[in-house]
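W.,

You were right to be curious about this one. When I first looked at the sequence I had no strong expectations either way, so I just let the prediction run and decided to look at it fresh. Below is the sequence, 187 residues in total, followed by the output.
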Amino acid sequence: MKQKITTKKIVLVGVLAALTAVSSALRITMPLEIAGTTSFHLGNILCALSGILLGPWLGGLAAGLGSAIYDMFNPLYISECWMTFLMKFVYGMAAGLVIRAGKKDWGYVKALLGTIAGAVAYALLYLAKSYFYSGLLVHGLEPAAALATVVAKLPATCFNAAVAIIIAPVLAIAIRKALRKQNLSAE
């Protein structure tokens, strides 16, 4: 079934992309001894929320755009903004695919499962990028050293995923209720 893209949906994509960019900026960045940096941030919450509220394609677009926009304004990440777009698109898309699977209506459990799917998909992509692209290709590290950078990034990656898994489903339920009450839902 082909869905119609309405002005309301375009506006919601823009709002969620903007909120994703802002929440990505709410971070604590730490340098890693071997190569690169890692961050604790709130952007993943909005990536999951985008997929849950807008579905796989529009939610992925909002998550990817917002995260890439943040990267474009940060000199540490500007060269990787295209990869961020793709990986965060997958985050929102995975969450949206879980929400759209099966029956149309969803609740907390389905929002939780969607957030978990998005968090796991993104974490795997991010850690693979950290090893192959950042570690081996950009910094020219030996495989063991590149693996050490991945291990160093695990605490922040797991923390960001856990925060999104705890907060995004609760926010999704509340926001969907408010959007429906105002007849603004994208569903």
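Here's what jumped out at me. The longest strand covers residues 27-31. And, maybe more interesting for your project: The chain has a mean pLDDT of 92.

Coffee later to discuss?

I.
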